[in-house]
Amino acid sequence: MTGYMALLKESGLKATFQRLHILEVVDKYGHIAIEDIYDKVIKIHPSLSVATIYKNIIIMVEKGVLVEVPIMGRKSKYELSKLDHIHLVCTQCGEVEDLACTKDINNILDFLTQEEKFKLTKQQINLYGTCSQCQSQKILQK
Ligand SMILES: [Zn+2]
Ligand SMILES: [Zn+2]
């Protein structure tokens, strides 16, 4: 819990009990939608509304504590801010997998953005497709 507390304070946010609990849930699941965060958080804070949780998440996204991951055709998922990485997003089941950014990829991004005189500060690359599990399920159905 103390790590989350420091994270919030560094970002200029009050470390409220709800925010700490939201961060704990997001950290546990990796990438998670607001409705699912709500389902977990109300077990400990039954009086919380979706709107309150939503508001807290939006503030934490604005302050860079959380990152929104857009999922094609579904609701966004949220994750803790961490080193730049690539997302493999399954459009069948909505699973999100993290892939580390290699030096080669960073070099390409630097090259492309410098070409446009664009100063790159933050990146998020989302690749959409079908995960291995959904692919094997499809084969089984045939
Ligand atoms: Zn899948
Ligand atoms: Zn991620």
Describe this protein's structure.
- With 142 residues, the chain is of the alpha+beta class.
- It folds into two domains: 1-82, Winged helix-like DNA-binding domain superfamily/Winged helix DNA-binding domain (Arc Repressor Mutant, subunit A), CATH 1.10.10; 83-142, Dna Ligase, domain 1 (2-Layer Sandwich).
- Helix content is 46%, strand content 18%.
- It has helices at residues 2-10, 17-29, 34-41, 50-62, 103-115, 132-141, and strands at 32-33, 66-69, 77-80, 85-90, 96-100, 125-129.
- A three-stranded antiparallel sheet has the order 1-3-2. Strands 5-4-6 form a three-stranded mixed sheet, with no helix packed on it.
- α3 (34-41) crosses α4.
- 16% of the residues are buried.
- Bound molecules: zinc ion (2 copies).
- One zinc ion (ZN) binds at residues 31, 79, 85, 87, 98.
Short description:
This protein is α+β, with helices and mostly antiparallel strands and 142 residues long.
Which characteristics define this entry?
142 residues; alpha+beta; Arc Repressor Mutant, subunit A; Dna Ligase, domain 1; 2 domains; three-stranded antiparallel sheet; three-stranded mixed sheet; 6 helices; binds zinc ion
Distance between the termini: 47 Å
Categorize the overall geometry: flat
* Total discrete domains: 2
Largest sheet: 3 strands, antiparallel
What is the overall number of helices? 6
Strand order of the largest sheet: 1-3-2
Could you report the average pLDDT, rounded to the nearest whole number? 92
Q: List the uncertain runs.
A: none
